[in-house]
Amino acid sequence: MNAEYPIAHEFFAEIWGALGGDEAWLDRVRFHGDGALPSPWAVTDLAAATFAAAGAAVGELLEAGGAGPSMIEVDRVLSSGWFHIFPMPPSTVLPGYDAVRGAGLTPTAWMVAFETADGKWLRAQASFATLQKRLADALGVRQDPAEVAAAIRKHQGDEVEQMLVDAKCTVAIARTHDEWLAHPAGQAVNAEPIFAVQAGAAIGNAWKPAPGRALAGIKVLDLTRVVAGPTGTRFLAACGAEVLRLDCPGSDESAGPFKRVPDDLMLGKRWAFLDLRKPDDKARFLELLSEADVLVHGYRPEGIDGLVSPEERQRAKPDLFEVAFRAYGWTGPWRLRRGFDTITEFSTGIASGNQAWALEKPETRLPLVEVGKLVDASCPRECPVEVLDVATGYQIAAAVVRGLTRRLKTGAGSVTHMSLARTAATLTSKGWIPDVAPAIRLLDGENLDGPLEDRVYASARGPVRCLRFPVTIERNPLFWEHPAEEPGASNPVWVTLSRQRPE
């Protein structure tokens, strides 16, 4: 194993081993690029490691299909830039997001920590209209951030957290990392593997990877939202997969003031509507599933199971490769609790660690970033990028490609379970790291200004270019074949022809 950038290599080895990858690939990955994002945690190294895992998985799949071995190069600085969610230069910051702010519906006012009566900090995630209403209704106040803050300040921290969780709100009290490790939920999550894989039926499949476009011909159904899942499926699209995202009409990301502006998280995908509560739409979904290779879903715990049961999914496509992820794992008392990246950072002690780190040397360290503004370290803060979401996203992509490699060899599908909290356990396993120079500084509305990809993509904002991909897979360029679509712009059909199974 290459000894340079040891933490990145250690993360990569841990992830790759958990995937069951061939150990030979540990020596085929090279990291470069000095510096790190300002954080006590090894955020930049985890970012680079997840790109390495996704790249190595593609290389291994191609080798299993008959291609020669390839080298994987990972740029740590560009990896940090891509973890900013939108890897665009500053001139292409989302204008639609600014329009939401200008309408007085600022998401950032609902994505903050509220102080409780006993001096604890409660992080709420209510950036969507349905989440805002749920939070305000549970507290008995209007949908006004100031009223929400005043109501929360009347309660003890643990009491209001449980009350709001019971009301299906997405919140978390800030815990230290030691408190999380001692908590039954933390103990359960830390005992889980990064990837929990259950083998499915082995019925054979005629598909093989195409050198130069590894996932050409693969069909991916994308039932994800926000960041983690869309990040993973975007990478699959960059490898040539046909990705079809499905949403229910009127969902938070497809309608209303918080509708997702077509952005680079949707690059390479098509976007269609189906309401799985309607018999005809559910039947159409099962038809799509019967021709799919991959299903990725990250709805609230048990969300999809109540609409299309695991047994129905298995009957529709016995050799399907399915990846499902949650916030707080699949065992323990919090397995059904809702969560996002920021919420999970508060629960697992990452946010409290950020606060302590900033206070340790306030004269030399950047103020930590709250979405949309710089702040001091008076309360727990998230990392400078959505590390749990994006790292989980590229691990999802790696898991999918590794699953396709297993299917290529055995003919069997499988189901893989993952979680944001388990990604947090990987990140915090190294403890605090020494300050790394130079600091890679990414602020809201800014990004690295290059190097950029040569390709230009159409978007609602006009032509855009992305930062260059952080991972290079020898002889296999990464790019997208479709622009980002408006919600519901496509019909729920596959474009790629179906493949015949071997006799």
What does this structure look like?
By secondary structure, the protein is an alpha/beta fold. It has a domain of 130 residues. 35% of the residues lie in helices and 13% in strands. The protein is built from 16 helices and 15 strands. The strands form four sheets. A seven-stranded mixed sheet has the order 6-14-11-10-7-8-9, sandwiched between helices. Helix 1 crosses helix 2 and helix 2 crosses helix 3. It is globular and about 60 Å long. The two termini are 42 Å apart.
Question: What secondary-structure arrangement, pairings included, does this model have?
Answer:
Elements lengths: L5 H14 L9 E4 L10 H22 L7 E4 H7 L12 H8 L10 E3 L5 E4 L4 H11 L5 H8 L4 H10 L4 E3 L3 H6 L1 H8 L4 E7 L16 E5 L4 H11 L3 E6 L21 E5 L5 H13 L2 E4 L12 H7 L4 E6 L14 H7 L2 H11 L8 E2 L2 E2 L12 H24 L1 E8 H9 L42 E3 L30
Parallel strand pairs: 1-2, 7-8, 7-10, 8-9, 10-11, 11-14
Antiparallel strand pairs: 2-15, 3-4, 4-5, 6-14, 12-13
